[in-house]
């Protein structure tokens, strides 16, 4: 470890010690059906969101926690897997999992690792460096993480606990917890969409932007990318850079979207208080933002446009697709496009029943369509399928009383967007969204123990001072 990082970690320990008030422990572990102490909070996902949530809980003196991630250590999140851009798209000075502690910011880590001059010259953060920073942050904070653990199912257990069945390399175990947080980023409670016309094609000829694509195998091939968001362009660029013979990007809009609404919404008022608005305003804002989709920065476009064998097709929604003797034929309003391989960058749709961990209660998760009917000109069926979350990010019931225990399952993922705006997968929202979630978690834990706290107060008899009363000499009677 460099001298700069050693010095920084000493500063972090001093900073955290200085702001440790109050230091009193306030939770007593519950005992699970297996006779062992249950966790207070189980966090599924140890990427940037899981780390920030774990840090927020520890600062709130909730230390009986555990983070699980199905990936191997260092491969959490998309940064070293399906993220195919050279750098983050967020400006370098956006803070996030540091939760507003200066010594924990990416800038502090970068300066300690590479020097202040490097930070000054930096334009955007390399995704490899972001992944390294997150791993360093997790280790520096001492968060308890188990990798190679996949959540299979969440079910109710006795004593008001939740039972989480988890698959590990050596078998399956059940963990008991008072609360479960799904900090599962892009996937959340959905699945990557493959447009209906492509679903009948051979599996080997279609992939989504989140799949493990062998781009070297696309050398000399014709590639079509469906969608025109930043991830679609990243995959098109990766195919071009890997030697694809030609790459066609199909945009359904008449003109490609170049406005990035997530830059507009990055101000404290919106990030902190969108969720405080009524349903009509929340729907209006988020429908507009999500229908615009995320725009892409100039370097993302230039990365594709510099290749003469790249073609952007605007006003070209996919109408049909069929397998041919020479590959795949995609039909658009402007004619057919021939391809050997198709990559879908069309986003994520909600599919509660398709998620094994949600299967037990998928049918009773309330969606936005269950709770709010927008005006005719504001309707969007896909967005209506997003979960309608409580003010602490918890699932709510479609039929009250049928699965009351899901109020202890909290969702911090892309699917939280309709209820809370940017959160769950956005760096720019973390310093406002994570404290809101942590406050909700600690509120629930406190309320559940309110009788114990009352009994503790009633029995509290620790004196703060010793009062001495010197004996007074009685005046002699005259």
Automatic annotation (TrEMBL):
InterPro entries: Auxin_biosynth/cation_transpt, FAD/NAD-bd_sf. The keyword Oxidoreductase applies. Signal peptide: none annotated. It comes from the Bacteria. Pfam families: Pyr_redox_3. Gene3D superfamilies: FAD/NAD(P)-binding domain. This is Oxidoreductase. It comes from Bradyrhizobium cosmicum.
């Amino acid at each position: 470890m460099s001298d700069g990082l050693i010095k920084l970690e000493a500063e972090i320990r001093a900073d955290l010690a200085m702001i440790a008030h109050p230091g009193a422990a306030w939770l007593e572990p519950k005992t699970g059906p297996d006779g062992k102490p249950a966790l207070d909070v189980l966090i599924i996902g140890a990427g940037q969101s899981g780390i920030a949530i774990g840090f927020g809980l520890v600062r709130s003196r909730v230390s009986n926690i555990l983070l699980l991630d199905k990936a191997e250590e260092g491969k959490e999140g998309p940064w070293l897997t399906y993220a195919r851009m050279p750098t983050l798209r967020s400006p370098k000075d956006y803070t996030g999992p540091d939760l507003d502690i200066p010594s924990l910011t990416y800038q502090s880590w970068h300066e300690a690792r590479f020097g202040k001059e490097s930070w000054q010259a930096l334009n955007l953060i390399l995704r490899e460096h972001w992944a390294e920073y997150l791993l360093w942050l997790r280790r520096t904070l001492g968060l308890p993480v188990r990798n190679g653990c996949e959540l299979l199912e969440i079910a109710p257990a006795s004593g008001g606990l939740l039972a989480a069945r988890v698959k590990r390399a050596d078998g399956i175990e059940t963990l008991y917890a008072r609360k479960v947080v799904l900090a599962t980023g892009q996937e959340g409670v959905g699945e990557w969409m493959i447009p209906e016309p492509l679903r009948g094609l051979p599996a080997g000829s279609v992939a989504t932007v989140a799949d493990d694509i062998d781009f070297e195998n696309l050398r000399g091939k014709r590639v079509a990318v469906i969608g025109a968001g930043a991830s679609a362009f990243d995959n098109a660029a990766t195919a071009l850079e890997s030697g694809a013979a030609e790459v066609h990007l199909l945009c359904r809009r008449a003109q490609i979207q170049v406005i990035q609404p997530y830059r507009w919404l990055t101000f404290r008022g919106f990030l902190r208080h969108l969720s405080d608005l009524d349903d009509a305003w929340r729907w209006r804002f988020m429908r507009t933002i999500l229908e615009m989709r995320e725009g892409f920065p100039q370097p993302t476009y230039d990365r594709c446009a510099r290749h003469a064998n790249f073609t952007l097709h605007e006003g070209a929604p996919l109408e049909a697709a069929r397998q041919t003797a020479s590959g795949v034929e995609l039909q658009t309003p402007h004619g057919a496009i021939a391809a050997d391989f198709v990559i879908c960058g069309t986003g994520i749709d909600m599919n509660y029943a398709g998620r094994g961990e949600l299967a037990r209660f998928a049918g009773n998760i309330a969606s936005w369509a269950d709770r709010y009917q927008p005006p005719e000109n504001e309707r969007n069926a896909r967005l209506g399928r997003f979960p309608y979350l409580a003010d602490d990010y918890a699932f709510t019931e479609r039929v009250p009383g049928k699965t009351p225990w899901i109020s202890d399952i909290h969702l911090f993922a892309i699917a939280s967007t309709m209820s809370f705006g940017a959160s769950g997968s956005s760096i720019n929202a973390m310093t406002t969204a994570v404290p809101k979630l942590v406050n909700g978690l600690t509120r629930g834990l406190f309320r559940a123990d309110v009788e114990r706290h009352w009994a503790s107060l009633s029995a509290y008899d620790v004196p703060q001072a010793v009062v001495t009363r010197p004996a007074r000499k009685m005046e002699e009677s005259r």
